[in-house]
Amino acid sequence: MTGQTDATTAVTNIGLRAPNEALTAQLGGKTLTQGVYEVPAAATNLTGDLTLSGDADSVFIFHMTSSLITDGGSRVVLTGGVQACNVFWKVDSSATFNDNTSFVGTVLAATSISFPGGGATLNGRTVAQTGGITFNNTTVNNSSCATSSSSSSSSSISSSSGGSSSALCPSLSNLLVSPTIISSRRVDSDSIYLTWGPYSGTDKFTIRYGTSRDNLAYNYDFSGFSATIDGLPANQPIWVQIAARNDCAVGTYGAASLVGGPMLPNTGRGLSQ
Amino acid sequence: MKLIASLLIALILILTFVGFNIAQQEAKKQNAKTEVSKVPGNPTRLVIPSLNIDAHVQHVGVDARGEMEVPSNITDVGWFKIGSLPGMKGSAVIAGHFDGINKENGVFVHLNRLKKGDKLYTIDEAGSLTHFMVQETRMYDPGYADEVFAQNDTSRLNLVTCDGVWEEGKKSYNKRLVVFTTKIE
Fold first, then answer.
1. In 3-state terms, what secondary structure has residue A42?
2. Same domain, yes or no, for B27 and B49?
3. Do the Cβ atoms of B123 and B44 come closer than 8 Å?
């Protein structure tokens, strides 16, 4: 699929960049300036705060040679105007963000990405090449670059990698079709499954959801045409709408759709329940 | 004479043309009215002639446990206001009590008597009627039954009540009865 090809291209491009510095596995407590860093495997790669210091054009690339694992409550902190859109994590296996992690950047994982602990926040995007992306009460905010600096940061990546920046930021012009939810069902009290289409030039989408049609307060980015969303408000009706996207912009959302429904009502013996 | 005949023919042609235009405009107005009336408003009454039901429709949501709320008395029915409007695309769902706290009959006590082909209708706040025909009846365990609330292309009105055996410990019957109906023109 094109989206998977894009993701693979992006990961390959980043992987081709030689590291400026090989770091120890634990990033917590460090303050780094822009550069390409290689980080080995460990039981955890982030305990406490990692501070990224620079300006709006500073680019940070982390190559995790195995997995990326964060401790609960760990944070990536940006200072000096560093933009989340300029932070990239190339993970050679899977990324795991434990509870209440506050993470930043585009995470490109060779296998899967999961947020098992709940309460985590990602200011960025997730792309899993072969496996799934599992959210659990996770807040994901898109990290579009400010207009003044996005072009310079993009060109910086493309020129140094020798490739095209389109791998990370293809044109939005072909995302003309608002996705339609083809099927949806409740998996259990706090989980739903949905499929959508059609393919209109991308397999990247932003899913927006909430407990009422007028309050779709949560969103996350997803690659593919189906998703299981966990960690939802239990036993509540869930409304969902989907828009096609690329790494720079989100297209027009399709109609909001109610997923499944509530439990059947208890209408026996008057109001005795 | 020829001049008079020509004038008469011209007059007839003009009157015919004007009349045709007026008729066209009237037809357009009628079409506009029809279009407007096709968009239903919130339902206010549910009428099922074969069960002698003519019930006020309350608007209900979801309770804290995730169950569809029920109407506040046993004579009204409750429309699931988070779902579709009766007559619109998707499944509108209306629930009614099976019985009252003293075992008196609720509005839907005889819902299981509905048969395929039976007709019913809702009345919306503008007084417009939307007609439905019974397709089938299904029995469910308590809990989720997404197909009852499905948001597909078919315009359905699904009626829900309790069935089965009363379980005192759970304060609930052990089954749910759903009558699926589809919109008819």
1. coil
2. no
3. yes
* Contact between chains at A268 and B172 (C-beta distance less than 8 A): yes
End-to-end CA distance of chain A: 52
Which among A184, A186, A270 has the least Cβ separation from residue B97? A270
* Rg (chain B; Cα; Å): 25
Query: Which of A56-60, A146-150, A243-247 has the least mean pLDDT?
Result: A146-150
Which residue of chain A has the CA closest to B75? A270
Q: What is the DSSP string of A193-207?
A: EEEEE--SS--EEEE
- Selecting from B78, B97, B144 the residue whose C-beta is nearest the C-beta of A263 gives B144
Q: A33-49, pLDDT tens digit by residue?
A: 988 899 998 899 999 99
Complex prediction ipTM: 0.79
Distance of CA B125 to the CA centre of its chain: 12
Tell me if residue B26 falls in helix, strand or coil: helix
Domain that holds residue B53: 39-184
Number of structural domains in chain B = 2
Domain co-membership, B99 together with B175:
yes
